[in-house]
Amino acid sequence: MEDDLNWAIGGEAGDGIDSTGKIFARALSRAGRHVFTSKDFASRIRGGYTAYKVRTSVDRVESVVDRLDVLIALTERTIDENLDELQEGSVVIYDGEQTTMADVEVPEGMIGLEVPLNSLAEEAGGAIMRNVVALGAASEVAGFPVEYLDEALVKRFGEKGEAIVANNREAARLGRDFVRKETDYSDEFSLETTDEDYVLLNGDEAIGMAAIAAGCRFYAGYPITPATDIMEYLTGRIEEFGGAVVQAEDELSAINMALGAARAGARAMTGTSGPGIDLMSETFGLVATSETPLVIANVMRSGPSTGMPTKQEQGDLNAMLYGGHGEIPRFVLAPTTIGECFDRTVEAFNLAEKYQIPVYLTADLALAVTEQTYSPERFDMESVEIDRGKVVDPDGVEEWLDEKGRFRAHAATEDGVSPRALPGTPDAAHMTTGLEHDELGRRTEEEDVRVEQVQKRQRKVETAREREDFDHREFGDPDADTLVISWGSNEGAMREALGMLEDRGIDVRFLSVPYIYPRPDLTDEVESAEDVIVVECNATGQFADLIEHDTLSRVQRVTKYTGVRFKADELANEIEAAIADERAPQEVKR
Amino acid sequence: MSSDTHFTDFKSDKQPTWCPGCGDFGTMNGMMKALAETGNDPDNTFVVAGIGCSGKIGTYMHSYALHGVHGRALPVGTGVKLANPNLEVMVAGGDGDGYSIGVGHFIHAVRRNIDITYVVMDNRIYGLTKGQASPTSRQGFETATSPDGTVEPPVNPQALALAAGGTFIAQSFSSDSQRHTELVKQAVEHDGFGFVNVFSPCVTFNDVDTYDYFRDAIVDLDETDHDPGNYQAARDKIMDPSTEHIGILYQNEDSVPYSDREGIDENMADIPEGAPERADRLVREFY
Ligand SMILES: Cc1ncc(C[n+]2csc(CCOP(=O)(O)OP(=O)(O)O)c2C)c(N)n1
Ligand code: SF4
Ligand SMILES: [Mg+2]
Fold first, then answer.
1. Distance from Cα A453 to the centre of ligand 2, integer Å
2. pLDDT per residue as tens digits for the range B140-174
3. Residue B55 domain-assigned?
4. Which of A31, A263, A487, B164 has a CA that sits 20 to 30 A from residue A587's CA?
C-alpha cells in the first residue's frame, strides 16, 4: 500500500490521547481514506503510558503493522516505548520547550521535529489545545490538508460552543504553519483524499448498534473493560427505541435481570468480560434449562483472573463452550471483523429466540476497541431481519394446552423447540424452573421425562445445525497444501499476511471461522491439506483442540443421564451392543 | 384482569409437599389472597421464587413464574418488571436466599425501589438443606453446623432495608392469616418496593422460633400508636430487635419507583416499531 501511513500519538493517561487520536482518525475518514486504529493502554515499561495509533490508506486496511511513520510524543518515554516501530525516516513531533522534553534525542536516521505545542496552544487560546496543535503539525507532515480536521473538531467540541471550536481550528492551523514556516521539514508524505463517505466505529459500537437494530430493549451489565463500551453506547440510545439499560450491582445480578426481561418477552442482552463470565456461569444453565432466549456478549481480555485487563487474548473459548456445571446446550458466535460484529449480533438475537437458548456473542479486545472505517451501506438496516421464533399469540394457545388446560411450555416437539407464551397471554400462565422439569415446567425426577427433556434441549442444537448456515469464509489459494484456520479478530492480519507469504513463495489456503458452536465441519479441508495450522491469541490452542476433536472420529459413546448410575450387567450389555453395532462410530458432536 | 378472580385461581393442581404444619402454607395462602384481592389474575402475574423449601411456592401457585438460582430471585423480578410494567411481580424466597447468598441483591433492589413485592418466608433456618443456621437464626442457636450454638448475631433485615432507602417495610406472621394477607396486599399496592418479612415457622428444624414463641412474643403495631410515616419512630422500632413486631414498620408515601424515575412504562415484549429502519440514523452518527 503506497499511500499507507502509520501515525500515533502517545503520552500519559489523562493527556487526552484517545480523543485526540480519534479526531485524526475521523478527519482521515471524512477525507475518504480508510482507517484502522489500535490502542496501547499500558506500558511495556511502567504504568500510565497510553497511545492511539492510526493506520490509513485509500485502500481498505484490515490490520496493524509494526511500523510508525509519524509519532506525536507528548512525553519522552513515548519515544522509548515505540523504538521498535520507529525507523529510518520516521518523523517524531515533540515540544522541545518543555523542560521534560528538553534533552530528548531522536534516534539516528529519524527526523525530530520540535514544535512548541504549548506556546502555540496558548496563542490560540489555551494550553489545553496543545494536542490539537500537534494534530495540525502532524497533518502538515503527513501532507494532509488541515481543513479536514475541522469537521472532526466540530464533532468533538461542538457541544462546547462555537468559540471553542474556532480556537481549536486556529490551534490546528498554528501547528501546521509552524511546521511549514519555521522548520526545514519538506514533504515526504502526501495523503490522497477521495470522495468516499466512510463511517468510523469499533466492535463494541457495532454490537450495540446491531442490538438496537435487532429490537433489543433491555440490557443489564456491570462495568468491565473492554465490554463497558457496549453498555455506554446503548445508554441514551436504547431509550429512544423504547428500551432500558440497567447498571446492575454485579454480573450475577446482570444476567438474572436480563433473564427476567427475556422471560417477560423482551429481546434482552447482557455483556461482560472474563471475570464476569465466571459469575454469569452460575445462571447460564438456568437460562438454558428454562429455555430462555438470551444474548450474552463476552468481550475477551487477557486472563486468567484479573489478568491483563487492557490486553488482547482469545482465552475464553473453553469457558464459553464448557462453562457451567451439567450439560448446557448453547450457541457460541465469534465475529471476525468489526463489520461482522454487526451481522452476528443481529443473528444472535434471532438464534436465541428461534431456539430459546443462550447465545454467547464473543468479540476479543482487539475487535472491541479498534476503530475501523466502513462504507455506511455496510450496515444496511433494510437487510436486518427479525425472527422471533415460536411465540404463540392468544389464538395459538389452545393448541398447546394439555388435557387439563395447562400450557406445555416445554413441549417435547420434533424439532426440540417449544411454543413460547409471553406473560400476559391469556390462559397460558406457566412456570419454569432450573430443576429438571416436565413439559409443564414443573419439577420432576422421572427417568423417562428427564431423558425426554435432555434430548429435546439437545435436539434444538441439531435442528439449528440443519436449518442454519454455520459457515466459514475462505481466502487465499484454494489448492494450497498449507491450510491456516483462525477465529476472531485474526482474520484481518492473516489476510494481509497471505500476500506477504505469497511474496515468499508460500501459498496458503485460509479459513476464517465465525461460528464456534455449532461450527462448520472442516474435516475435508483438514484431511486434504498437508500442513494444518490454527492461529489464535492464546497459549494452549483451544480452537486447535476443537479442530483436532472434530476430525478424530474413532470413539463410540455409551452414555446415561437418567439420574441413576451404571449397573454392571447393564454396562456389559451396552458394551457388547456397541461392539456388535455395525454403525460408524457416533457422529462427532460439533 | 377480572374482578371476579378468586384466590384459588392462583393455586396450581400440584399438592404442596411441605411438612404438615409448615408456616409456608399460610404465607402462600396470604400471597394468593393478596393478589386476588388487588385485582390481579394469574395471566398478568409473574412470581419469582428463590431456592429453598420456601422456593417451592412457584410450583404450588399458578401464574407465570420462574424458579431460578439460589439467591438471585430479586434481579429476575427486577428484569421482569422493567421489561413489562403491566405485570404484577411478586418475588418470594427464604431467609437464606434473601439475606445470605442474595443479600447484595436485596440491598440494591430496595435502593432501586423497583415496583415489586418481596415476601421473605423467614423461618430462621435453612429448611431445605435440613437445618443449618441461617442469617436470621438467633445467636447461640444449635444446629448441625453449629453444635455449640452460632456465634454470629442475626442480621436485622428491616434495618438493612431502611438503611438502603426502603419505602415499604413490613413484617407479618403466617398463621395470622387475615393480618398477613392485609400486609402483603398493602405491599402490592405500594408504589415501589414492598417488602414483607414473614415469620413462617419451620416445624421440623427450628424448635425455638415456634408458633407458640411467636404468638407470645408478637406485638402488632396496629395496637400501638406507631405511625409508619414517621421515619424516626420506624427507626427506633426497627433498631429494637428484642420485640417481634408485625405490621407496617415504615412506609414512605412519597415513594417514586425506579421505572417512574427512568420513564419506563411500556411493555418491551414487542420489537419497537420500525426498529431496524429507524436505526439507520445510528449509522450516520459514526460519520
Ligand atoms: C449456589 C447454591 N448453594 C447451595 C445450595 C443449597 N441450598 C438449597 S436451599 C438452601 C438454603 C435454604 O434456606 P432458606 O433460603 O432459608 O430457605 P428455606 O428452605 O428455609 O425455606 C441451600 C443452602 C444451592 N441450591 N445453590
Ligand atoms: S423443613 Fe421446615 S421449612 Fe421445610 S417444609 Fe418442613 S417445616 Fe417447612
Ligand atoms: Mg429459611
1. 29
2. 999 988 999 999 999 999 999 999 999 999 999 99
3. yes
4. A487
Query: Is the Cβ pair A426, B76 closer than 8 Å?
Result: no
Examine the domain organization and report whether A490 and A448 are in the same domain.
Answer: no
Q: Which residue puts its alpha carbon closest to atom 6 of ligand 2?
A: B19
Q: Does A435 touch chain B (CB under 8 A)?
A: yes
Closest A-chain CA to B273: A241
Compute the Cα dihedral for A161, A162, A163, A166 and give only its sign: positive
CATH number of domain containing B113: 3.40.50.970
Q: Please, which residues have CB less than 5 A from ligand 3, an ion?
A: B 94-95, 123
List the A86-94 sheet strands across, edge first.
Answer: A111-114, A86-94, A68-73, A5-12, A49-57, A34-40, A371-374, A199-202
Same domain, A18 and A89: yes
CATH of the domain at A71: 3.40.920.10
Give tens-digit pLDDT for A372-393: 999 999 999 999 999 999 999 9
Reference A246, options B106, B282, B72, B78; nearest CA is: B78
Instruction: Tell me if A99 is assigned to some domain.
Output: yes
Residue A281 lies in a domain: yes
CATH of the domain at A379: 3.40.50.970
Most B-contacting residue of A26, A28, A35, A217 (CB-CB within 10 A), to test interface: A217
With respect to residue B263, please indicate whether it lies within any of the assigned structural domains: yes
Nearest to B43 among A237, A266, A426 (CB): A426
Do A189 and A107 belong to one domain? yes
Q: Work out the widest C-alpha separation in chain A, in whole angstroms.
A: 94
The atom of ligand 1 lying closest to the CA of B93 is 15
Report how far residue A425's alpha carbon sits from residue A393's, in angstroms, rounded to the nearest whole number: 7
Burial of A271 (0-12, 13-18, 19+ CB in 10 A): buried
* A447 and A506 together in one domain: no
ipTM: 0.98
Domain match, A444 and A500 both: no
What is the count of structural domains for chain A? Answer: 4
Kindly state the average pLDDT of the residues A63-77: 94
Q: How many domains does chain B have?
A: 1
A336, A335, A301, A337: which is closest to A319 by C-alpha?
A301
Q: Which of B66, B75, B277 sits opposite A248 (nearest CB)?
A: B75
**pLDDT band at A1; cut points 50, 70, 90:** very low
> Which of B54, B72, B129 for a ligand 1 pocket mutation test, highest count of atoms within 8 Å of Cβ?
B129
Q: What percent of chain A has pLDDT over 90?
A: 90
State mean pLDDT over A102-108.
89
Cell of A482: 498449507
> Which range marks the domain in which residue B112 is found?
7-284
pLDDT (mean) for A113-139: 97
Model pLDDT for residues A220-255, shown as the tens digit of each residue? 999 999 999 999 999 999 999 999 999 999 999 999
Q: Hey, which of B19, B72, B97, B105 would you mutate to test ligand 1's pocket, going by the most ligand atoms within 8 Å of its Cβ?
A: B97
> Would you say residue A39 has pLDDT above 50?
yes
Range(s) of the domain holding residue A494: 473-580
Cβ proximity of A276 and A224 under 8 Å: yes
> Which strand (E) or helix (H) includes residue B182?
helix B177-189
B2 domain-assigned = no
- Same domain, residue pair A29 and A148: yes
Q: Could you say which of A467, A500, A521 is where a domain stops?
A: A467
pLDDT (tens digit, 9 = 90+) per residue, B36-87? 999 999 999 999 999 999 999 999 999 999 999 999 999 999 999 999 999 9
* Residue from A455, A467, A553, A473 nearest A514 by CA: A473
From the CA of B70, give the closest atom in ligand 1. Answer: 26
Please check whether residues A463 and A534 belong to one and the same domain. no
A590 domain-assigned: no
The CA angle A175-A180-A183, to the nearest 5 degrees, is 95
Q: Of the given ranges (A72-81, A471-480, A573-582, B165-174), which has the lowest mean pLDDT?
A: A573-582
